[in-house]
Amino acid sequence: MHEIEIKCNTLLKKVCSGITEAIKLENTESHGFHFRVTLKAEKSIRQLGMHILETSKGSGVRFTCVDLDELNREYRKFSSHYEAVQSKFIDMIVETCSGYVPTFCELSEAIAIIDSLVALSVLASGSSSAYVRPQILDEGKQVLELKKCRHPVMEANPNSSQFICNDIVLGSEQGDNTMFLVLTGANMGGKSTYLRCCALSVLLAQMGSFVPCESARFSLIDGIYTR
After folding, report:
1. Which of 95, 98, 118, 156 has most Cβ atoms within 10 angstroms of its Cβ?
2. pLDDT digits (tens, 9 = 90+) for 46-77
3. Predicted local confidence at residue 109, as pLDDT
4. How far apart are CA 53 and CA 43, in angstroms?
5. CATH class held by domain 2-87
6. Is residue 173 pLDDT above 70, yes or no?
7. How confident is the model at residue 174 (pLDDT cuts 50, 70, 90)?
8. Rounded to the nearest 5°, which phi and psi values hold at 54?
9. Could you give the CA distance from residue 69 to residue 79 in angstroms, rounded to a whole number?
10. Which contacts (CB < 8 Å, 24+ apart) does range 79-82 have?
11. What is the pTM of this model?
């Protein structure tokens, strides 16, 4: 196919010798290899006995000749053979690989888990403030105790001001059964950030990550509800 392209370019030089206008060699799906010139050269093309394919103001005159038609037929023949071989090769690859689909799925899952764990470890080790390993208590203890809890995204933003840590304590192992907190404050006072700090720390901990706190201990939590 490359040799045919070389022959087409050689033929282009030959045709150019008989026409003063610049000629371009083009290859389109509808016409294959053909020549193109401006409308001004149409008269010269017809005098040379060339076969006019198309004439328009936008694209000029598209034409061909007997030798170029022959090269086009050869090119289409080789192109069809190439596509047939390529299709057969792809079918062979698909058939071979299809037997390994379960293995690929297991490999993909393993890579995804490793990627997640590495990302969490990079987050914890690369933070400017310490991340700690949370202590997960039994679900029946009903304890939520986060000391100097931080927002992992806000503290990582270099453009934000220094983040103010907060303690979050609900319930205790000494019998305090307080499990409800009414959070009030002025607009833009940090209420939403306070809640998100708590939710994100719990979520990260139950994913298996270290958390952005000075210390963290809480019972298993089965849901985080938002609106």
Report:
1. 156
2. 777 788 888 887 778 888 888 888 888 888 88
3. 96
4. 14
5. mainly alpha
6. no
7. low
8. -165, 140
9. 15
10. 79/1, 82/1
11. 0.56
Distant-in-sequence, close-in-space partners of 154: CB < 8 Å, separation ≥ 6: 160, 163, 193
What's the whole-number average pLDDT of the chain?
A: 86
pLDDT digits (tens, 9 = 90+) for 120-154: 999 898 888 889 999 988 767 788 899 999 998 88
Q: What pLDDT is stored for residue 54 in this prediction?
A: 82
Handedness of CA 93, 99, 105, 111 (dihedral sign): negative
Distance between CA atoms of 100 and 98, rounded to whole angstroms?
5
The 3-class secondary structure across 164-222, one letter per residue, is CCEEEEECCCCCCCCCCCCCCCCCCCCHHHHHHHHHHHHHHHHHCCCECCCEEEEECCC
Q: How many residues does the chain have?
A: 227
Give me the CATH code for the 130-219 domain, please: 3.40.50.300
Output the CA torsion sign for 17, 19, 23, 26: negative
Of 150, 130, 127, 137, nearest to 199 by C-alpha is 150
For residues 87 and 91, what is the distance between their CA atoms, to the nearest angstrom? 6
Q: Where are the chain's structural domains?
A: 2-87, 130-219
Q: What distance, in Å, lies between the first and last C-alpha atoms of the chain? A: 63
Residue that the structure tokens 């206008």 belong to: 21
